[in-house]
């Protein structure tokens, strides 16, 4: 089982590297550098003017620590075929799952250390804590995370997902209480209580696996859901074969489809609009990127950085919507239409340009409200209009030509 885990861990690592090449491309890395630099500059200015008497410092710190605790899940790397081929060695699977827990704990600890490092100056100023005391909060979070992972492993032997109130108590309420005691009393109290909570979960798990059989279907489903979340993130940057969208009826949008069909003589405008509204792939990408861009623009006060982020997100949205052009290529009936590709391309440009203009308007409103500046909102709108025009007139034709060739 040790060899099996190492083999799957290596294959998983190589798969993640393959997709990270598309995520960490030149455009995204440059945008990330600007974003981190802008946020760091704003954070530095905030700390310079921060007053240690602020009442909200404690609640915000506690909330941030508990949110950091939630990052990361148990990665078992189980496959659909495992219940068939590994069932005879079910008893040995516990050693495999223990290695999965250690792997997940190490990954989560790396993320939590980064989060604690970001909070370090704020906690030092707000509560006059030493470096060792802040390190104690980091240790508390790591210990609690190991207990969470043990709880996730324990549910695989109980053949049921823990109820929402159980997760609420163990993952949120108790950690919040320990952090409150650590902030306002002593950090060693938080460390001690976190050890007790995690030790209880570890002991429960050690007793459960010897008395119960592994719930294979639950374990595989949980892992598939975890991987699906990762693939959906990668799907924002490149096509991922493992992500399969679902189709929803969405009857409330039928009237909008009727309006589109009535005001356009291009049948592909209706087809592309229908695919966009009823498929979770395209609509999900569009709305997620638009909302994410709006949230980032709210917290980026620097005008040049916000304009750069707006340009980047509009480009990302347009890039992610390009596969919509070939959505009906495998439908034989569309090839029977006596319609040229130029009309199809025009229908695609018509729809995407209006979607991008909607995003431009939302970005301009957010920038104007967040910075209380009509001038900055107007500049954002004008720059967005220019970018959309360049994308439709210059970028899309070259990309469409490659896709059709």
Automatic annotation (TrEMBL):
| Transmembrane residue ranges | 20-43, 55-78, 105-127, 173-196, 281-301, 307-326, 347-369, 375-396
Gene Ontology CC: membrane
Q: Which UniProt keywords apply?
A: Membrane, Transmembrane, Transmembrane helix
Q: Which domain of life is it from?
A: Bacteria
Official protein name in the record: ABC transporter permease
Q: Organism classification, top ranks?
A: Bacteria, Bacillati, Bacillota, Bacilli, Lactobacillales
């Amino acid at each position: 089982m040790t060899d099996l885990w190492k083999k799957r861990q290596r294959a998983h690592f190589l798969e993640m590297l393959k997709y990270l090449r598309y995520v960490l491309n030149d455009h995204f890395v440059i945008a990330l550098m600007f974003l981190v630099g802008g946020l760091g500059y704003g954070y530095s200015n905030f700390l310079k003017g921060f007053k240690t008497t602020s009442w909200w410092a404690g609640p915000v710190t506690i909330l941030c620590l508990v949110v950091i605790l939630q990052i990361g899940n148990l990665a078992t790397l189980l496959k659909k075929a495992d219940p068939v081929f590994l069932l005879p060695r079910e008893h040995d699977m516990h050693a495999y799952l223990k290695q999965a827990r250690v792997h997940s704990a190490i990954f989560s600890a790396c993320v939590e250390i980064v989060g604690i490092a970001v909070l370090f100056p704020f906690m030092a100023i707000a509560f006059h804590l030493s470096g060792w005391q802040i390190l104690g909060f980091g240790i508390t979070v790591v210990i609690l995370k190991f207990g969470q992972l043990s709880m996730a492993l324990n549910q695989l032997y109980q053949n049921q997902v823990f109820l929402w109130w159980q997760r609420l108590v163990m993952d949120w309420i108790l950690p919040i209480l320990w952090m409150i005691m650590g902030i306002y009393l002593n950090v060693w109290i938080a460390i001690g209580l976190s050890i007790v909570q995690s030790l209880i979960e570890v002991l429960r798990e050690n007793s459960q696996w010897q008395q119960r059989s592994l719930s294979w279907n639950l374990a595989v489903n949980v892992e598939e859901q975890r991987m699906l979340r990762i693939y959906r993130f990668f799907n924002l940057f490149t096509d991922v074969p493992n992500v399969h969208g679902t189709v929803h009826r969405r009857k409330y949008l039928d009237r909008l489809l009727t309006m589109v069909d009535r005001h356009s003589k291009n049948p592909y405008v209706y087809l592309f609009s229908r695919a966009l509204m009823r498929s979770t792939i395209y609509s999900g990408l569009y709305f997620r990127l638009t909302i994410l861009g709006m949230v980032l623009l709210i917290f980026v006060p620097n005008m040049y950085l916000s304009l750069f982020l707006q340009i980047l997100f509009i480009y990302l949205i347009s890039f992610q919507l390009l596969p919509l052009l070939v959505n009906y290529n495998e439908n034989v009936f569309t090839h029977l239409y006596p319609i040229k590709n130029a009309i199809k391309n025009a229908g695609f440009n018509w729809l995407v340009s209006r979607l991008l203009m909607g995003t431009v308007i939302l970005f301009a409103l957010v920038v104007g409200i967040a910075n209380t500046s009509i001038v900055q909102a107007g500049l954002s709108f004008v720059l967005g209009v220019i970018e959309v025009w360049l994308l439709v007139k210059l970028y899309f034709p070259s990309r469409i030509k490659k896709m059709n060739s």
